Structures are given as C-alpha cells and as structure tokens.
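Worked example 2:
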Amino acid sequence: MVLPDKKEATMLSISSINYSVGKKQILYDVSANFLPGTFNMIMGQNGSGKSSFLKIFSGEINSYSGTVLYNNRPIQSYKKSELAKFRAVMSHQPELSFPLTVEEVVMMGRYPHFDFQPTQNDKKICNEVMSRMQLNNFKERNYLTLSGGEKQRVQYARVLSQIWESKNHFRYLFLDEPLNNLDIAYQQEFLEIATELKTNETILVAVMHDINLAAQFGDQLFFMKDGKMAASGKPSTILSETLIEQIFGVKTTLLKNPVSELPLVVFNKNH
C-alpha cells in the first residue's frame, strides 16, 4: 500500500463535479483546491449542495462526473481501507445503535490501523484523544445514554483518533456541520482542536453554518449557492455585505472584530 507522500503532495484538487439524484441535478461543475496547512470552510444555505460536495471528495459518494485528486492521484485508485488510514470523516448526523462504551467508540477510529487487536500505540492514541476531548470521566459509559452534545464530542474523538498520528503522509479531516448540539464553549473547543492539527501535512475542511466562527477559524471560505461554487477566498478579503446577501438572502452590517481584526458579521433586524 502506498500512502500519499508529503514530499510529493500538493493539495486536494476537485474539478468539474456534476452530481444528480434521479432527474434532479444537485451540483453543477463545482471545483475547489484545498491546500495543506489550511482550514477550509464551506458555507451556503440549506440545499445549496455543501454536504453532497463533501461526501463526493471524501469518497462517500461515487456516482458523479468530474475529478477528485488526492495528491495528483484519483480518489478511485485508493482502496477504502487505504483511504481510512489517512482520511477521516465526521458525518452530519453520526449515530450508533449498539451499546458500546465511549472508549470503544473512540477506538473505532483506530480500526483501519490494526488487524485483530489494538496495539499499545492504538490505546495510547485513544487515551490522548479522550484526554484532549475531556472524555476520561465517562469513558466507561454506554454511548447510547449520552446527550446529543456528548455524543458529538465522542464522535469527534473517534475521527481524531483515526488520523491523530502522522507517518510521513498527508492527513485529511472532513467535518460536516460538526458544531450541532454543542454549546458555545464546546463550539470554540472543537474548532481550536482542529486548528491544532493544522500543519503542512494536514488538510482540514468543514461544512459550517456560523459565518463568524468560519471567519475566525478558517483560512479559506468557500460559498455555495444553488449547487454551484459562488465565491471563495480569505475571510479578510472575500467577506462583504453584498456577497452575504447574495448567498444567504439576508442584509448584514460588516464590522471589524476588535480582537482578531477579522470581519464581524452583524445581521440586521427586519423592519
């Protein structure tokens, strides 16, 4: 098995994606490049095609036209078992129906890395991730008894454990609306932990709804509308009142965040 080599890799490149479900076209000629060492935020209204786009370049959807290249290599050339070693995906509504403990769910992220029994290194990684996610106090609890926010934290720990360790190849972390069911403190914590992984060997992509959090943590913003890529760029240069109204259909006032000096979007009241 050949994993993506850091020395040879340049980016995740997606070109001319068209995707339909039955007679309904969902994506129209969508392209994007995600560079190593960046946190990329995809935004748009519900139904704009954000999650479908993520599912395509993460390998969850295969029935499309266009090209997805991981380091200049077509995604189809990887076996699913290969992809799972360096690409982790947190779905929009991950759920389990089996009475596993929190620790067992987190260990699921390590399944691609061992054959029958987890190694000491696998256990070490899971313990590190659970500690970082503040899960140690209830790691023996039945996952099914947890609240929605607690389950979200456990699922995040699972995907983090999958790519926690770098072994001379790129890592990809894809998050589909990762902040659902989380309070404000944990929303910040989730994104801060993701940025800790933001090195020159990691590509991070998240589908987001909160435009201010996206601007705060994102290096590149990608806006989708009606199944098309409408605009993309750095938060400091791309965000404008006109663009936000075009994408979301709402009027806003753009201020400067006094702490980060990044754009701060304030939604205007309807009169």
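Confidence is low (pLDDT under 50) at residues 1-9. Residues 12-267 form a domain with the Rossmann fold fold (CATH 3.40.50.300).
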